[in-house]
Predict the 3D structure of the following.
Amino acid sequence: MAEETIFSKIIRQEIPTPLLYQDELVTAFRDISPQASSHILIIPNKLIPTINDVEHNDELALGRMITVAKKLAAEEGIDKKGYRLIMNCNEHGGQEVFHIHMHLVGGQPLGRMLSI
Ligand code: 5GP
């Protein structure tokens, strides 16, 4: 059984965080430490620790994360200029919170995809 992270408490609003979107599958809120002028996290309500733990029956939630990203990008006014969606996995991917999440970042030029 995977251990809950702070994100489960945000989903249940046990830690009050303004939500930009929530439905039966996903929740979205602003990153506490934004790396660009727009930086939103979109997460499945179900606790899935890493992308390696994704199962076929998670596909609806994973697809919803993309459609919610598109909707929020338009609401943020960053859709036309563009943005980046990022999902990190484990140590080399730089994952810090073990409840999968999609970063929606934009609002400024983001440079090259990787700086290693
Ligand atoms: P990762 O490195 O795992 O891909 O990204 C985790 C993200 O979660 C980081 O960008 C970090 O700033 C964000 N984060 C961590 N704790 C909190 C929190 O309590 N509230 C919010 N809104 N974001 C958080």
The pocket of guanosine-5'-monophosphate is lined by residues 6, 17, 29-33, 41, 88, 94-97 (CB under 6 Å).
